[in-house]
Amino acid sequence: MERKNFLKSLVIGAVSSSVLVEACKKDADTATTTTTSSSGSTSGSTDTGSCSVAPTETEGPYPTHSPASYVRSDITDGRTGYKLTVKITINNSNNSCSALSGALVDIWHCDAEGNYSEYGGSGTQSTNYTSVHFLRGRQTTDSNGLVTFTSIFPGWYTGRATHIHVHVYNSSGTSLKVTQIAFPEGTGTALAAVNGYAKGMSGYTYNASDNVFSDGYTLETATVTGSTTASFVLAISLSVPA
């Protein structure tokens, strides 16, 4: 009996050891996977030290018809509103989120009344702006991955929060990312100060209810400083796979 109990204990011990080893292996695999995922994910903001790729968003319904035709840093093109300097830093998520120089960055957004250039005369935008190109432009990132535009603070239109569209290409013109920039909300923000311009904020769609941003907009939310009298500055870092 003693010998049988001894052999039984050996079998149980072997099984326990096997289970323990397998459990440790799974923990190790999980840790490895987590580490790989963490280091392999890509960044949206160097300010936060994260490394997450900027979300892909819709380009429409008002994309620029010929973006290469509007290489300019000042995109106001006669539109009036509170001055907004837009500073966008592009990082390469495939290279430890280092600055991506030589990238082409297009931006476009609506004017103070919520209208887009190059469109109009239809139900979605009654005012016809098909022959003008305001608030659209292209710049090439510098050695720090930075582009700077001079614009005005965007207004809003039904169903959307205030936003700016961004399309990033590599130096050869291959599309890398289409995304959008969200604005901080709440008391004391630039959005509150602008107060929807002449339209006010009645019927405004906030980020959490916006059909683009409602699934998450942390990586797309810019920092906006300044005032209506001193002008505003928007800054954001976006990481794209290049």
Helix content: 10-25%
For the termini, the CA-CA separation is: 70 Å
Gyration radius, in Å: 25 Å
Count of helical regions: 2
Elements, N to C (H/E)? HEEEEEEEHEE
Low-confidence runs of at least 5 consecutive residues: 1-49
Largest sheet: 5 strands, mixed
Q: Report the portion of residues in β strands.
A: 15-25%
State the secondary-structure class: alpha+beta
Name the average pLDDT.
Answer: 84
Quick summary:
With 242 residues, the protein is an alpha+beta fold. It is globular, with a radius of gyration of 25 Å. Strand 6 (163-169) and strand 7 (175-182) form a beta hairpin.
Would you give an account of this structure?
Helices cover 18% and strands 24% of the residues. It has two helices and nine strands, in the order αβββββββαββ. Strands 1, 2, 5, 8 and 9 form a five-stranded mixed sheet that branches. The chain has a four-stranded antiparallel sheet with strand order 4-3-6-7, with no helix packed on it. Strand 6 and strand 7 form a beta hairpin. The termini are far apart.
